[in-house]
Design goal:
2 copies of one chain form a homodimer. By secondary structure, chain A is mostly helical. Chain A has 7 helices and 3 strands, in the order αααβααββαα. Chains A and B meet through helix 1, helix 2, helix 3, helix 6 and helix 7 of A and helix 1, helix 2, helix 3, helix 6 and helix 7 of B. The structure holds a DNA duplex.
Chain lengths: 170, 170
DNA sequence: TGTTGATTGACAGTATACTGACGATCAAGG
DNA sequence: CCTTGATCGTCAGTATACTGTCAATCAACA
């Protein structure tokens, strides 16, 4: 068997590369989300942050970044935008002056409840072109891959660790 | 059978959502790419642009954006950075004063040749945690899904259309 | 030829993402 | 108590991504 030839330097190699496909699929996913949720003026990231704060009331920004696998620097501006929109409140923690505790406002809880159907539609649309069996297969593989590659990103997901300070984790 | 209950509003639902997994996998893919290609100071997007210009010498910015499924506004700054680094040249087209034609410099062709092994390593690492059969399955499903969802993004991929002006397409 | 409509590159504005750094604060040790 | 090191939120800087707009240019048509 001859030695493997050097791969050709063409754009077609890029089209088949995992990195390109992940970027492309992310573009498409964001586009579909924004389209379905236009009426609510919430980005996918802002939605994830709201859900996380709803699930873990009183969480601080650093732990929130771990819960949604989010860069801490970026999260600052996301939180600020949510605060300006009136969906969350930032209150200083009495026992630690460095920390600001995050809570949903009534308005935040309301929009979260109302946006759910649109989000569900968006998530469904992303996979709609595939056959049902293929959707399950793809999601299964993706869950695996993201989990196994967790440490490869700068901000690994730390869902459990982040809860300990709240006295809920074990 | 009782009617389907409303989905719970918790972060766990997000972890299993396609949109979240695509975002997460993109984060991881970019992180791995940057790590493997650190010595070359090229982002994934800049790499894709260089490859596309190498494949289609003399392409203009608008067509380039279609070839790599890239927003035209964003592409402007990407091109500028590549020009500052000395990897590409922008020359005005004699027959159309609106257009600037893009070509690789010798330096650009050289870095493209040199970076290929690092890019191959990065692409391999993204899928490494999966079994070989699962890697193929995932890529197959992703190629399908990206293709079938092509029109859902603002900048659909137009690989063929973009070539016609160069007299190469049919 | 002169107007109309489309295209091109550029720009402003917003929103993720990451790197690196900073002062304020806290916890632990001497 | 005081120093040391870690953590917290924040900021500056860079790089995608998208929306919308603009002047310059071009192509097509009356």
């Amino acid at each position: 068997m001859p030695s493997k030839p050097a791969p050709p330097i063409t754009i077609d190699a890029v089209y088949a590369a995992p990195g390109y496909l992940f970027r492309r699929m992310q573009q498409i996913a964001v586009s579909i989300f924004m389209e379905e949720c236009r009426a609510f003026d919430l980005t996918p990231v802002q939605y994830a942050a709201l859900i996380a704060i709803h699930t873990h009331p009183g969480i601080d920004a650093t732990r929130l970044s771990a819960v949604i696998a989010f860069d801490r620097s970026t999260l600052g501006s996301v939180i600020e935008r949510l605060e300006v929109k009136g969906y969350i409140e930032r209150k200083p923690a009495p026992e630690d002056k460095r920390i600001k505790l995050l809570h949903l406002t009534k308005s935040g809880a309301a929009i979260l409840r109302d946006i759910i159907p649109a989000v569900e539609r968006a998530q469904a649309r992303m996979l709609e072109p595939l056959k049902p069996a293929d959707r399950k297969a793809l999601m299964g593989l993706l869950v695996q891959l993201v989990d196994l590659n967790n440490e490869a990103s700068r901000v690994p997901l730390r869902a459990e660790d982040a809860l300990e300070h709240l006295g809920k984790g074990g």
